[in-house]
Structures are given as C-alpha cells and as structure tokens.
Amino acid sequence: MEERIGTAGSGAAFLTALSCISQLLGFGYRVALSRLVGAEIMGLYQLIMPVYSVLLSLTAVGLTSAVSNLTARNLALGDRRGAGRTLSLCLRTFFLVLIPVGAAVVLGSDAISVYLLGDARTQLGLILLVPCVALTGVENCHKHFFYGAGLVRPPAVVELLEQFVRTLAVLGLLVLFLPQYPERAVGLIVWGMVICEVFSACTLVILYRRRMGRPGRGEREDRPGARRRQVAAIALPVGFNSLLGNLLGAANSTLIPQKLVEGGMEQSQAVAQFGVVCGMTLPMLSLPIVFLGAINLVLSPRLTRACALGRKEEVRRLVSRAVGAVCLLTLPAMALMVVVGPDLGRAMFHQAGVGEYLIPLAAATAMSCFCSVLCASLNGIGEQRAVAAISLLGGAVQLAFTLALVPLPGVGMAGFVAGTVASGALELALCLFWTVRRTGLRPPLFRWLAAPGLSSLLAGLTSNLLFQVLKDAGLSPVPAGGAAALFFLVLYLAALQAQGVGIKEGVEALR
C-alpha cells in the first residue's frame, strides 16, 4: 500500500502539468471558437451541451465507475481475464442502452429542440450528439479501465492529445465552411467533436489491446450473473445520482434563454447573453484554478488510507491543509480576475459583456472551489451519498432562482447569477458542516479565510488603482495588466507574511 501511494504521489506532478497544459489549450480553443462564431452561436452550443451530459449520465457514467472499481478488484486478485470480461460486459450494456436512447433522440430531435431547448436551430447538433456520445462511452470505459489498473499516464496523455485534435478539427471545419446558418455552425462544432472522439476512442482501444495481450490460463471463472450483479450494484446508484444532477443542470441551462424571452428580450439577444455568461465569463474565471484537480487527486486516496488505518488526527490534518491551500490560492486568483477580467475578456472574446457580472461570479467560483475540495474530502472518508444529496440540493436552488427571477423585467441574467451565488453558498455551508461533523475538525477560520481574504482585498484594491492609473497614462491593457498582476502578487505575499501565514502550506498540499 505504501508503494502504491508513493507511486500515485510521484505521478501527481506529471498529471498536474498535463492538466495545466490541457486547461490552457482548452481555454485558447474556446476563445478562438467564440471569435469565429460569436455570442449567439456560442449560446446555441451551450444549450445542447447539457443534453450531452444527460445522455452520458443515462448511458455511460455508472458503467465507467463499475469498470474502474471492478478492474481494480480483479487485478488485485490476479484475475486479468475477469477484468477484461468486466470491460466487455460494460461495453455491451452501454450500447444496449444507447441504441434505443439514441434512436429516441434522433427521431424526436425536432420536438426536443423546439419544446425542450426552446430553439429549433439546435436540431442538427442534437442529432450529431448521438455518435459523439457513442464514441465518448467507448473512450471512457477504456479510460477507466486504465484508472482501475493504476495506469493513469496513458489516458492522461490521450486526453491532452484529444484537446489538440478537437481544436484542429473544430476550428478547421469552421474556417473551411463559415459563414453558415447558426444551425449548421453548431453542427460543424459537434462534428469536430465527433472527429476528436474517433481519435481518442481508437487510441485507447489500441492501448488496451496492447496492455492486456492474451489473457493467461487458469484464471478465475465466475458466473455471468454474478458479474452482472456486481456491475449493476455500482453502475445503477452512480448513474442515477449523476443523471439527477445533470437533469437539473440541463433544465437550468435550457430555461435561461426561454425565461429571458419571457422577460421581453429578443430570442437572438437572449441566446447571445446566455453564451456570454456561461460560455465566456465562467470559463475565463476557471482558468487560474488549474491547481484544484491536483489537490483533489492527492487528497482522496490519502484520506481513504488514513480512514482505513483509523488515523483520525491525520484525516483532520489533511483536510485542514487542503482547504487552507485552496483558500490561499483561490481567493487571490479571483481577486486578480476581478481587476483584469473585464479588459481580458474584451481582448480575448471581443465581447464587452464578459465583465458585467464578474464580481458575483468570481465569488461563486471561489465557493465552488471550496466545495470541490470539501466534496473530495467527504468522498475520501466514504460520504458519497452526502455529496450527492448536497449537489442535488444546490442544483434545485439554482433552478428555483432561474424560474423565479430570470423572467422578471429588469432582472434577467442577474437572477441566474444570484442563483449561482446562493446555491454555491448553500453547498459550501452544508459541505463544511458535514465535514466538521464527520471528521471532528475545528476550522482555523483565520488561516482559512481571514488572512487570505484580507490580503486578497488589499492587493486587489491597490492593484486595481495601479491598473487604472497605468491605462490613463496611455499604457495598453496588456502591459498594464501584467504590471498590476506582478504588483498584486508581491503585495499579497507581503500581506500574508505580515499576518503570520505563509504560502508554503499551499505548496505542501500539492505534493
């Protein structure tokens, strides 16, 4: 066990580096995409993506969890043939579920686009989502086989290459065939996604065949019914929870443009505003928090091991260090984005509205980061049901705000933003309460919130003043933003040090 934990820890830096590269590449892709197609088509694209998530939840998410868990169990017992049979069973089940579901989506695409999504221009994208989901399911089942086998590098490298292929495929198709009607433009984007999924699915299948080779003889045999029951015991609850969460998210996304229209906005303007907030502002705010995946990756297995050994004090220490690291890194990142975000958004997306709701969305993003590390902590100590319940409750609150506030004249997208903040605050409070209750942790609020919060506020206000002075002096936004960011970093670290808190804790949590 010590050897496996050490191996996972040594690979964390590698995976973190790949995650950073992938995040930057994905953000660059989104910037180029938004410039090519504009806010309205980005809004149409954002409308169909929740359908993609729902289809994956309905067909693949639970099965991929079963592949990962049962592969780890089979290989631990030396049963390579059993691991291969589990993957084969999950793939067959995936296609048995996908065929009727996909046929229903294709045949009902007209009604779905008009009555559920509220825009007939999403129909072509919906139809092309079906082959995309089929390829993604094959990819994810093989990817989780590697995760279950403890081989995280092959799928991580394939995922990074997939980003390159998606960027080239989608942007290449748009450059070749634009201008097009909005429906065809959305179809071109999804068709580019299909191309990249062909690459990743084929690559992972080949890697799987090379890794497994020919199964040895004399390995364990079991009854097919027992294997099916094992898969069902894992796949059904995981898939059901994922489906409920994605249905809430899909309902919220599809209702926003419709409710904006109810409030008196034109259809094209409503879709464009939805695209600016959800397709540009929120992805821009997620750019500086690439460290979050690394912290969660390291945290969960360590907590599981500490719980298995009965080390309650180590559990509390790990949770406190992880949450403290997120506070030390997230709060200044969001404060800096508030300062340079409006100019950064205009420079990258060529959309003035990117910075309109930046402050409340930055606060919501920070709360989402805290929730993420607390949920990873709860998952590590075996509280998956609590995490699912809290997530569903937060989604319900967000949906209620969308239904009640977005249609009101003069409110519009501000109602969605208010719901994002309210649901984030509720999830954060519940996650913190449940973590404290289950671990006995006494939150060090000064180190978690007071010190980094005050330091971020001081650095943000001062660097914002410097940023405005430099721009008024005739400096362009890019060098002015760079100078303000450097000044922000120095002042933030100095303010932390003055309060007796060092950044070393954040670095240690990433190890």
Overview of the molecule:
By secondary structure, the chain is mainly alpha-helical. Helix 9 packs parallel to helix 11, helix 12 packs antiparallel against helix 13 and helix 14 packs antiparallel against helix 15. The protein is 85% helix and 0% strand. The radius of gyration is 24 Å and the shape is globular. It is built from 16 helices and no strands. The chain has 2 domains: 237 residues, no CATH class; 249 residues, no CATH class. The two termini are 18 Å apart.
Please identify the structural class as seen in this structure: mainly alpha
How much of the sequence lies in strands comes to under 5%
Element pattern in H and E: HHHHHHHHHHHHHHHH
- Identify the overall geometry: globular
Rg, rounded, reads: 24 Å
Number of domains: 2
Number of E-type strands = 0
Number of helices: 16
